[in-house]
Amino acid sequence: MASSINADTISECSEASTLIDGSVISTVPDRHGFLGGAQYSPEPRQGPPPETVLRRERKWLKMLSTWNFYMDRNYRKVKERCRKGIPMSIRPRAWLYLCGGKLYLDQEQGKYDECLRATGDSKCLEDIKKDIHRQFPTHEMFNSEDKPGQHELFNVLKAYTVLNPEIGYCQAQAPVAAFLLMHMPAEQAFWCLVSISNKYLQDYYSPDMEVVRRDGFILQGLLKKVCPPVYRHLKKVNAEPLFYCTEWFLCAFTRTLPWDTLLRVWDVFLCEGVKVLFKTALIILIGCLGTAKSRKNCPGLCETLDRLRNPPEEVLVEENLIYNINRLDLTERDFQVEHQKQTRRIKLEKIAKSNEDGG
Length: 359
Fold this sequence. Notes:
Layout: H1 7-11, E1 17-20, E2 23-26, H2 50-65, H3 67-73, H4 75-84, H5 91-99, H6 101-107, H7 111-117, H8 122-131, H9 148-163, H10 173-181, H11 186-200, H12 210-226, H13 228-236, H14 241-250, H15 259-272, H16 275-289, H17 292-296, H18 301-309, H19 313-316, H20 318-327, H21 332-358
Antiparallel strand pairs: 1-2
Helix pairs in contact: 4-15, 5-15, 6-11, 7-9, 8-9, 9-10, 9-11, 10-11, 12-13, 12-14, 12-16, 12-21, 15-16, 15-20, 16-20
């Protein structure tokens, strides 16, 4: 059984390997395809027994065959099954349905190939070329230009810039697109990226980053509600939300979490929406700084940010993180109130700045 964040925290709020740049690089990939790096996990996973997995697979196949019925009439069951974890064999198809990528795929047949045939913006294409080799360089799909991963990643990102030229290319899209490509064919990954960008991370990739900034303040407001001591500590050391949550939100934790944990978070994220990113961030903040001792060990901004960038291992363990996300005491109303408050705040700041510039 998963353990919760400890009571004090709640109350206060292979084969031979070589070293390359400090990272262990194995000749044999782990079960997720990693050859090394922070997300390499060679140990066998202690998952549900095979009979449980088989039973869940059958339930998911039945649910996917009548998807609209479940989404319209029994969404509670979809949410319950996502929180338990989607079986690995079902996950690519389930994610495609959950995020709405399947609707785009069916309605826009031929559009992906059309985008690939287009010339594309030369600056966007140059920026993509500079970035693709940086995405999961220790994963077997992306660790060489000869592998299909880098080529498919370029295509998916190029197609997105052609489809949405007003947004173009944002670096944070690359790890999300690469993550999707690890689980599904390029055309499906493209439409999932489009749907996630439109529905879940709406306006996150605009150049001014105003929405990410707003959501950082929403996170700060929610933290004040669920764990005031951590909120006060971050204010004390002048840790602005954008200092620690930008990569979390823009990349939807694809650069942050252990791989098994990331998969489980995405199961819930694609079902329940962006509030899951907020809850995940809150659990990490509380897990890192929720005790008096942990805050005492982080007296300044640098120590605090370093701890948030390197959370204790037990905070990120799959079952612990999901358990704590699900038990976090936040309602839809809490999110709505904070969203309205911070939207109003940003608007007033813009008006004030406009008046200053005009004066």
